[in-house]
Amino acid sequence: MNSVSASEAPDPGADAISAETINAAQFTGEALPEGQSAITAKIQILLDRGGVSPGVIDGYAGENVDRAIRAFEEINGLPVDGVMDQDVWQALQAHGGEAVSPYQITVEDVSGIVPPLPEDYRELAKLDWLGYESAAELLAERFHMDIEFLETLNPGVDFAQPGTTILAANPGANAETEVARIVANKSRERLQVYDSTGRLVLSYPVTIGSSDTPSPAGTHEVLGVTTDPTYSYRPDENFQQGDNNEQLTIPPGPNGPVGSTWIDLSEPTYGIHGTPDPALIGKTASHGCLRLTNWDANELAMLVANGTPVEFVD
After folding, report:
1. Least C-beta-crowded within 10 Å: which of 38, 59, 187, 194?
2. Active-site residues: which are they?
3. Is 288 exposed, middle or buried (0-12, 13-18, 19+ CB in 10 A)?
4. Strand-pair category, 190-194 with 231-233
């Protein structure tokens, strides 16, 4: 079967968001548009490359983008106000290059897709693997994107067809930096990562515990990292899901309750972990742990060492 190139899709119109408009976008000094826009998508991608995760790349401005800009300003020694301006734009050019680029889908990309997963934990516990429910979901996470945004850039494309060429965000390689200290800042809803000189080097949007299930106070330590963790559901210690009153072991997978990575903390039952719902990071409360997108949790897990302090601040 012949491959389908996303670039061969009909032109959706000059004003529509596309790979071409994103790559050509330039900041003009005006406030970011309220709706989805090429310039916001490009800024999100450049921030991601600069060590400051905007969460899911979707082309929409909002609090996650504002907080990411604030962290980028701090990392780069700019006045910290969280406002997109020409100084921030100029600093982002150090992470330039094609923001959206082509990718050819492989057989491996589509071979591990699972049927739709149940929401009930009792039913999840009967399964072996909580994988991606579609090739689009897998590819969106790989490129740090919202699924609908990936589909917008690739109208009519069958993501389940190996050999198909799609257009996707290019968020760059995983960070390589020293990590000496981590701060979970509840008011900023950011996980801030510092090196041994006290310099901020990475920043991620994070969902932190609520008033009903608060995160621990004070400073704790990283005890270890688990890839593709199972999840021990203990309603008497954590929270109750539905009418499930019994302890359950939820199988591993990126769509499990703690996503694809668990960074264990010295406070019992607490950790830094991924999520099956990356679009909600920084927008909803967690059950006390620190919840990141799967890709951010995976990156951080490769950088931390046992004993790394993790401080919770308001």
Report:
1. 187
2. 273, 289
3. buried
4. unpaired
